[in-house]
Model the fold of this input.
Amino acid sequence: MKERQIEEYEVNPYTMFIKPVVYGSKVYSEIYELEDKYLYPFKPLDIIKKSCEYFSSSFEGRKDGTKQLIGITHKVPIVIDPTNFIYFFPTTSPTRSECTWFSHEHVWDYRRVDSRQTMVIFRNKQSFNFPISFSSFQNQMLRTADLRMKLMQRTGQTERQSFYIMNRAKVVEASESMRQYGFENSFGPHQS
Done:
């Protein structure tokens, strides 16, 4: 994978993870996609915030939504775009310079390397070691899975309600048409 420097970036369905890289006194982001790697001259949190805005929300709004759905207030997993299943979670407090963000969708497996490192295997079969304990990584995976499940349940409930309302309207409309037809039959052409 060859790294290319870019000036604009939004998280997308190909984004696997975003990790911080220190260049002098500045923190940049290394962005790993399924087949590409980019260097971005801003922090990972800046990308996450910008991506939330790109998908018509704010980072704070997404955090509040997670808190409301699953009660998590620290190291909050967020949905960036529920339509494309883009859920990300941080390895530590997002304000810390060493925070890496992972796409829940792309994590295939993870294994303990030692007490402070976890190997993460992605869906494209690439693997990398990260400075996070196995239990902490596992906890973040489970929190994000919980967020996804709760949001899908809510979405499903809303879709079922919409389906019921739309189909109920069709049933009412059909029964009204039948009454009108019956009404015309009773007093219409048969009265000669």
